[in-house]
From TrEMBL:
The lineage of its organism: Bacteria, Bacillati, Actinomycetota, Actinomycetes, Pseudonocardiales. One of its GO terms (biological process) is response to antibiotic. Signal peptide: none annotated. The keyword Membrane applies. It is found in: Membrane. One of its GO terms (cellular component) is ATP-binding cassette (ABC) transporter complex. The chain crosses the membrane at residues 28-50, 62-85, 106-132, 138-163, 170-190, 227-247. Keywords: Antibiotic resistance, Membrane, Transmembrane, Transmembrane helix. This is ABC-2 type transport system permease protein. Residues 22-211 form the ABC-2 type transporter transmembrane domain. Its main location: membrane.
């Protein structure tokens, strides 16, 4: 008589992957600290010295932009480089042979990304509250945090697509090359109102501009660009499909 081994519950499996991946990230403190402090330092050095207290709405917009910047940084680098690095280690192929759904590890990785996304937001909010004239009700701030995480979805998909498509040596430069143009062009470092006309058009076509406009709208009520929001949705769908394709392609190459 044989005893069948029941698969571990999906929730427990996701939680196990989440704990493992979280501890793996925490073992490299500099990676966690850099993603958590860089957006806040940008706010401290490039916004606080010019904040006169005369326009709280402008300060709130700057804080919102840099929150999106922090999530973009975390998602692109955590998934783009992290997934590519994992694929080159013996542990990852072994995990794929276990009787657990692949979605459990992906879900665990997504939860880790969301965790560090929140971590990257907290220092920005702290600097904004202490050193700028930005202010908002607690409910608006919480809604803004949710909006930032939703706004990060296309960058999360982009990171997964890079990580499952490229080796680490290629994923690092590709992620770095994509990161700065998207961040600057999307108005995350400078308000898009300061851009010349042609750059405003280009900016509206980038997913980062739609992400920025959605978060600013949530926090301050400023009307988002219709084109930017439509392109944000388009990019989310396209990059989501690309991430699924990249994962299936990697799975087929290794295990067919």
């Amino acid at each position: 008589m044989t005893t069948a081994t029941l698969p571990v519950g999906t929730g427990a499996t996701v939680l196990a992957h989440y704990r493992y991946l979280l501890l793996e990230q925490l073992r490299i403190p500099i990676a966690v600290l850099s993603s958590a402090t860089f957006p806040a330092l940008s706010l401290l050095f490039f916004v606080v010295p010019f904040d006169t207290g005369a326009d709280p709405a402008a300060s709130a917009t700057a804080v919102a932009q840099l929150c999106v910047f922090g999530v973009l940084t975390g998602f692109l680098f955590t998934f783009g480089i992290g997934v590519a690095d994992d694929r080159e280690k013996p542990w990852d192929p072994y995990l794929r042979t276990l009787p657990a759904p692949a979605t459990a590890r992906i879900a665990g990785r997504l939860l880790v990304g969301l965790t560090f996304g929140v971590v990257s937001i907290i220092p920005v909010l702290a600097v904004g509250a202490l050193f700028t004239s930005a202010s908002a009700p607690v409910g608006t701030i919480l809604l803004g945090v949710v909006a930032v995480l939703v706004a990060g979805i296309p960058f999360l998909f982009a990171g997964l697509a890079i990580g499952y498509s490229l080796p680490t040596k290629a994923a690092v430069p590709v992620t770095q090359l994509i990161f700065l143009p998207i961040a600057f062009g999307g108005g995350l470092l400078l308000p898009p109102d300061l851009f010349p006309g042609w750059l405003q058009v280009v900016s509206s076509l980038l997913p980062s501009r739609g992400a920025r406009d959605l978060v600013v709208w949530t926090v301050s009520g400023a009307t988002p660009s219709t084109l930017a929001v439509v392109m944000f949705v388009v990019w989310t769908v396209v990059l989501g499909g690309l991430a699924v394709w990249a994962y299936r392609r990697d799975e087929g190459r290794r295990y067919r």
